[in-house]
Amino acid sequence: MVKKNMLSRLTKYPTPLYFYDLQLLDQTLKDAVDAAQPYSYHIHFAVKANNNDRILESIQRHGMGADCVSGNEIREALKRGFPANKIVFAGVGKTDNEIKLGLETDIFAFNCESLQEINVINDLAGSMGKKARIFLRLNPDVEAHTHKNITTGKAENKFGINATDTDIFLTLKKDFKNVEFVGLHFHIGSQICDFEVFKNLSLKVNEIQDLFESKGEKIKYLNLGGGLGINYADPQQNPIPDFAGYFETFHKYLKLRPGQEVHFELGRALVAQCGTLLSRVLYIKPGVRNQFAIIDASMTDLLRPALYEAQHRIENLSSEAAEKKTYDVAGPVCESSDVFARNILLEETRRGDFLAIYSTGAYGQVMSSLYNMRDPATTIYSDEVE
Ligand code: LLP
Questions:
Q1: How does pLDDT run across 136-155, given as a tens digit for each residue?
Q2: Which structural domains are found in the chain, ordered by start?
Q3: Are 280 and 15 a contacting pair, CB within 8 Å?
Q4: Cβ(79)–Cβ(69) under 8 Å?
Q5: Which of 9, 44, 146, 177 would bridge 67 by S-S if both were Cys, CB 3.0 to 4.6 A apart?
Q6: From the alpha carbon of 46, which atom of ligand 1 is closest?
Q7: How far is the CA of 267 from the centre of ligand 1 (A)?
């Protein structure tokens, strides 16, 4: 993680700049794998959180699989060394070409969200002489207690199939000969820090399993999705999330059947803290009410504050001033929501100062855009800094 004492080595790089701490990434991945190991849980990395080549290569080296949501993510995962039999393909709107790619490359499974989609997968698999392994993504109607824009497992969300709809298996067996049902998939939301939510998910999954079993269905794999949150308020305090507590919660409450294999799809928890967005202050602008620090990074580099009211910790790496002042930290884009923080205290800040915006390794660079014809941020990895 970027600290003040690294500043002299970073000022030669252009900003905005995404800095990735590969050592922290490595330690985080190791901790996650070690925490999953006692229960033989399998982890797939949610590529949507960060698809940088070196990040994917590190994750692949730790033996994790890949959870992809587009054909291009499948291609990239294969290119970075993830074996096809550890790739799952999810998403509520897979195109025919993307499904064909998954079938051609023999990925492990498709996480399916509707009978309409399974129908298409069945037809395409048939025309290619293949059988597709599928998970049914069920909507368990469990409250995730997170921001509404990243809640996915409530009845009103577009994701998944109604968890009480056991008739679906009759249709699967009767009409779809080219798909093999292998498991159930759940994902109820993201940035979940309250383990009680994962307990509730486990208990709901137990009920659903009982119901499906009572209809004679065997479930070989369970995929519980991702969602483990991180500490945005104080990233330095404890940069590695509590993977042990997370997996232990599932171990304690999930009722597994003999031989059943459990998968997870973590994104944020694995990569968020290794990334820091660095930006230079362009102007200190006295506003009508507030004092603005206008910086050279914007919502095109990090959309999370504008989209989810996310608060990332920000520090001034350059200033040695004893006094702290209040600032609104804003980007240059012509949108009122292009603001990273309001009313935060920073050491007295001047034009040219370097600001660090922490916890940006997940859903940061991947969500960037070229709006206002801005240049994309540059990237640097910790082992490249001289
Ligand atoms: N599995 C599925 C089916 C998902 O939809 C997601 C994330 C994950 C796994 C990984 O979840 P994670 O472990 O990262 O929470 N852009 C938002 C987050 C969107 C999450 C989308 N789905 C943000 O910046 O907060």
A1: 999 888 888 877 776 776 77
A2: 4-17+273-384 (2.40.37.10), 22-270 (3.20.20.10)
A3: yes
A4: no
A5: 44
A6: 10
A7: 6
